[in-house]
Structures are given as C-alpha cells and as structure tokens.
TrEMBL record:
Residues 270-287 have a biased composition (Low complexity). Pfam families: Acyltransferase (PF01553). Keywords: Acyltransferase, Lipid biosynthesis, Lipid metabolism, Transferase. Pathway: Lipid metabolism. This is 1-acyl-sn-glycerol-3-phosphate acyltransferase. The lineage of its organism: Bacteria, Pseudomonadati, Pseudomonadota, Alphaproteobacteria, Rhodospirillales. The keyword Glycoprotein does not apply. It comes from the Bacteria.
Amino acid sequence: MNRTARALGSSGRGALRLTLYLLWTLLLIPLQALAVARNWRLCRTLPAFYHGACARLIGLDVVVRGQQADGPVLFVSNHSSYLDIIVLGSRIPGSFVAKSEVGSWPFFGLLARLQRTVFVERKARASVDKQRDDIGSRLDAGDSLILFPEGTSSDGNRTLPFKTALFAVAARRIDGRPLTVQPVSIAATRLDGIPMGFAFRPFYAWYGDMDLAPHLWQAFRLGGMTVEVEFHPPVTIDGFSSRKALAEHCHRVISDGVARAISGRPSVPAPAQEATSPAPAPTAASA
C-alpha cells in the first residue's frame, strides 16, 4: 500500500479511534455535567483537557503560532469543519458561540451545551440586542468566547465574508477597559505529511450539503492531519471607526493567515490595527 493510500483511510484505524473517542466522551460527560450544575471552576477547564485528548485520539497534530491573549477575550476565527471545535477547544479555555440549531443536534448538541456554548439565532434581527447581551454577560463574568463570524463553514481554501452583527459586543467594556478581540486563523495543511491542497482538504472541511455521518467516519479513518492555528495580534474597538471596520480588519488578517498556511509560506506579523485616532499599541503580538 502506497503512502497516499495509507493516508486516505483504514477501517480498522477508524473503528479503533471511534471506539476510543466514544469511551472517552461518555466517561467525561457525567463529570462535566456535574461541574456545570454546581458551577465549579472545573466546568471551564475540563473542556480544553477533553478536546486535547480527542485531538490526539483522532490523529490531529495541532501546530500553534502566535501568542494567545489573556481573558476575557472574544476570539474570532474562520470555520471549515466540526473538527475546528476540537482543535480550537484544545487550545482556548473558553466557550463557543454557535447557531441555535446546534443545541438540538443529537449527541453533539449535548456536548455543546456541556461546554456552555452561547446559542444565537443568526437570522432574527429583532434578537440582536439579546444576543449581544447574552454574549456580553459571559464576557463580564470573565469567560472567553470563540466566534465564527462567517455564519457557516467553508471549504477551507478561503475565508467567507464576516457577518458584522455579533461584533456589536466588541463595544463592551470589561472593568472599564475595551474588550480584547483576537483574530485566529485555522487551516488543515497536511495529511500524513502530504500537503493537502484542494484535493485532500475536503477530508477535513465539512461544508455545503455534505452528510455528517460519512464525513465523520472518513475523518476517523484518515491518517494523521496537521492543522495550523495562528493567534494574530489582539485589537480593540477603540482603534476602529465602527464594528464594520473591526470586522473587516479581522477578516483581512485571518484570510491572510489561512492563505499563508495552505501555501506553506512562513508566518509574518500581521499589520497593526488601523486606528482612526491615537490608540495604545496591542499588548501582545504574534510570536
């Protein structure tokens, strides 16, 4: 069997990984449920430990670049797959912002609720203020949140336009300081050391009308995948004329990060925020 064939899948490997994933998940569900019910600090730290183990079980090699800002932070990321949840969840001690339908999904909806996901109705304009307040109250409590502002998943080769409505929370001030917003780019780059390219990337990306179960089974069968995550310099709304300008900045920085990762070009520091008035420089920068 050649290298490409090995990378593309083994049913035995898939069955073993799936079994271990289910056992690991079922083992931790009661503990996380109790931690959430009692509001223990564990409910905020256990998910990162859980996702880290899941990434190793599934064969995801997560390569991280840049410096992660201290919370509370609104992390803004591109989105191409349910695997992004495992990758980012293993590195960021926070909760996700997800569309409301996710909460009703079998099994995965339960996992989302146990991670204290903030569910939003993206199509209801009348609920924007409520969603902003729900997100803001979690940030006020010291939690970091992870937002996918594309509103859907992409093919992983590009970053879709960002929806600006949820950037309204960026105007919130935490203890008198503007909320920290950190762009994060994520890209699947290699499959068993082979550059993924357009041909292989759909094995990671889940988008359009793809069926979940076959895609998930294929992901468990695959060889090891390298996923690159880059934390870009954090910014605040104070450096921009509007939330739209902030969203455009995040989109540009993330798009550039994804393009560099999938092309294999070395990472370079992202441009500084385009301030409309003098503002302090960001306190953290890419490594």
